[in-house]
Amino acid sequence: MDDQGLPGKGAPLEAKYLSGGTQNEIYKLDRDGFTCVIRIPPTGAPADRDSGIIREWRIIQALDGTDVPHTAAVAACEDTSVLGRSFYLMGYVDGWSPMDQHGVWPEPYNSDLSTRPGLAYQLAEGIALLSKVDWKAQGLHDLGRPDGFHDRQVDRWTRFFDRIKARELDGIDVATKWLQAHRPLDYVPGLMHGDYQFANVMFEHGAPAKLAALVDWEMGTVGDPKLDLGWMLMNWPEDMTVEGAGQGGYADLRGMPDRAKMVQHYSEVSGRQVDDLDYYLILAKWKLAIILEQGYQRAGDDPKLQSFGPVVLSAMREAAELAESTDYKG
Hints:
Blueprint: E1 14-20, E2 25-31, E3 34-40, H1 49-63, E4 73-77, H2 80-83, E5 87-91, E6 95-96, H3 116-131, H4 149-164, H5 172-181, E7 190-192, E8 201-204, E9 211-214, E10 221-223, H6 226-233, H7 259-270, H8 277-297, H9 303-306, H10 308-325
Antiparallel strand pairs: 1-2, 2-3, 3-5, 4-5, 6-8, 7-10, 8-9
Helix pairs in contact: 3-6, 3-7, 4-8, 5-8, 5-10, 6-8, 8-10
């Protein structure tokens, strides 16, 4: 921090643990009134997390000066002799995460359902703005390989499933063949988050809803931004008036707009056509099923990973059913 000229030189540094897992740990740092957040892989994380953390840093740094809500880029360090791993410092966001709410929205969103559409539209707006970032001008020309993105998605995850396969998944052949035979109407490369959902955003305190930052860029790349749209909406109710719609997940979606309105808002902000949405919904469900299947195969006595089992089966069946029923021809 001193070498980077950050405030508070000579003052004591206070650290407060915020969150962490197998991939990264996050601490709030305070030094003489200057506050920031450190994101660093834990000691036992795979070696490639060091390059992954710098990849995240590049994305956050590239978002400076754009309309995308994000944490400020403060400093990065690739010298593992400092803390044992590569790490970066980002601005502290004084807001709240849906993941910290334990299924209950903070007020007024919990008791006043009329305030909830703002949360949903802000969520959609986050990736719509992200899709508009001039990634080449922001120095991310080598971040991903946009050419052949969709071919690689299907081939990569098919090979991955073949390596971990321990049971048959109903519908996987149908969905895989459909994805291999179809492509989006148009593919305009752009910056994408890779795991976009309520779990990976923060909101400012109070109402009306305002997105404070997109967070957790582990899967960020240059690819097809509309896969973020499909990922966000793959379990979003088509009709919110149906009994039980929007309930059952980690976020209570009751009172929020239905899928069509979310898609319309994304399209209006991003300027991208969305007539091929079904392609992205099928790809998202298919990909999610394969990713979660790995966790399920490794579950052992872990109840969380064991719970992935039926989710995998449901997601793959839904992917196949949509592939068989969609009017989209590609």
